[in-house]
Input
Amino acid sequence: DTTPAIVRTFLSDLHREKRSPASVARKLVSLRAYFAYAVDQGHRADNPALGVKGPSLPKRMPRVLQEGYLEDLMIEARKVLRSGERDRTILELLYGCGLRVSELVGLTLDDVDGDRRELRVTGKGRKERVVPYGDYVAEALQEWLVVRRAWLEKKPKERALILNQRGGRLGIRGVAFILEGIARKMPERVDLSPHALRHSFATHLLDHGADLRAIQELLGHESLSTTQG
Output
């Protein structure tokens, strides 16, 4: 006979007990799963926890990776045998250019200007921006583009810059899997998400005296407040 009002009262009691928002949210998820099971087994006709709004969770900033740690990561990526050149390029583009993971996997060969050392990046809302890159990214791209030709046996016309091992475009989940694999090989386990690399890129630029508005343009942020966050 549980109703949505009872569920809300339960959450309010947890709040009065000074339980953390994350703890309250987890309990709400558990209730939703429990009642979904009850509905599936025919014990209830509805899920009373489904429409109940949970607490607002604070947005956590990703940890800034140390520059020395990132140097070790690049070395580790070279050791991943067949995929080393590609994986190092992924790391360099996410950190060295501050790309979103969606922007990374969306790159094509036509977006790379090796002479000017620039990338044409398509960001949110299909807005394009030009992002310059330095020596480390240039070296990684040069090595990867040589190896990339050997990956095109099954899809010789593929124009995606970053490929999976079947010769097709690498997806967002594939990038996450690669980063997790590299992180597991490191002596110190840290968050190696694409956003952590992007956040580290911006923070290190700021630490080295870069202008905040220039960083905003490189990241493709609409407002300066987003960059400051």
Remarks:
- Residues 21-40 form the longest helix (20 residues).
- The two ends are 45 Å apart (CA to CA).
- The chain is about 50% helix and 5% strand.
